[in-house]
Amino acid sequence: MVRRRTILKSSIAFGTFGLASVVTGRNASPFAVAADDTLPSTITADTTVEELCPQYDDPYYVPRDFLDYLPTQYSSDAEKAAQFDYDAEAVQNTVEDGTLTLGDLGTQALPLVQTLAESDFPAHATVKLLPRLALLPDETETLELHNEPQSVWEETAGPTVANNDPPQFTQEQWPTDARTYIPEEVAERDRVHDQPQNEEWGSAAPLPDNVLHDDTNPVLDAASEKIHPVSGESLGGEGFTATAPMAAEVNMHVLNDGYWYQYLEFENVSSVPYHLDGAVLWWLGPSGMGENLADGHYNNAQRPDPSLGHPQRDVIEVVHGDYEGLSVYATRLAFHDQPYHMRTAYPNQRWSLEIGTPVYATDVSFPTSEERQQLIDTMLNSLHVELETNMDRNDDLIEAINLKHRVPN
Known about the structure:
Keywords: Plasmid. The chain is built from 12 helices and 15 strands. A hairpin with a 6-residue loop joins strand 10 (312-319) and strand 11. 48% of the residues are buried. The strands form 3 sheets. A 7-stranded mixed β-sheet has the order 3-15-10-11-8-14-4. Strands 1, 2, 5, 6, 9 and 13 form a 6-stranded antiparallel β-sheet that branches. A two-stranded antiparallel ribbon has the order 7-12. Helix 5 runs antiparallel to helix 6. It has a domain at 151-407. The two termini are 37 Å apart. 22% of the residues lie in helices and 19% in strands.
């Protein structure tokens, strides 16, 4: 029989990492946000992009974000554009001079922008997200899978909201989308993706044995004891925890008898979007002994096409000596090239990860329904998601748990 231990439970509140600098202009230093970043007090169908945020083009490239990815170019977006009365001709004719109105974008953008204004969401982030807000459906969309499984376990866990009850999470500073590829702007936009080019970094394909069997890594207690690897304090919940309002669900997808996909699905249950660039996740799951960690996939319906807006990952697996057949997995999402409106979890919408796991690498199996349910519950209860704040790449976490091992997308 596989030995199991109940995951311990405890509590804490998270701190912040400091304030963003305030500079302006395309020729200014990176990490620039205008001093006045508040949406207008009155927003109507006649409100223009320029009225929402005068810096819509410089430094945020909103016209290019629209024009480079017009919905007429992508079948799923074309269907949404027709459904939501999106005026593609008006976008083409007026977005560059800033006179594009919320009414031109159809039925969806106006009420969503009004909600963001009520929530004190940053103006620059609002206009950056407009290309997707205009196509955001009222209903929660079903995610498509990258790998269709042979079967799915009947045992499941969730969906459940984060047990530490995180408050509204607003990322006050969003980077330029760098559509003209000025090097300084690209460095800001792709700061997570490009980090291995500028620092000493390893590969997770294959993962070094000293990482796989590092019994001093604080990520072990982060998952099993819900202890933050940096602060040493409790993560604040008895099961799934996060730094932003979200719900999580865990399933197991079976490709064949020896190869599974751990499936983690999340939903933004707040009223504001948050981007996922630099997000760090960890959880206890079935050991794959560090083999094939490059096999991982990201799903999000809020992008023009699955070939766009998919991240690379920093990823490690650490065998947990107190749980037979289980390891702690930790991963950080590292997007590149595409605008931030494709890197975002939108209110009432979902995103997910598929983590390939060669379970043939161990002699531990989960033959009974009771054991499978216990595994799935353990995965969910140990799961934590920490989003990026102040464009800091979650560097403190990366250092603390040695998450410096990259795999391509």
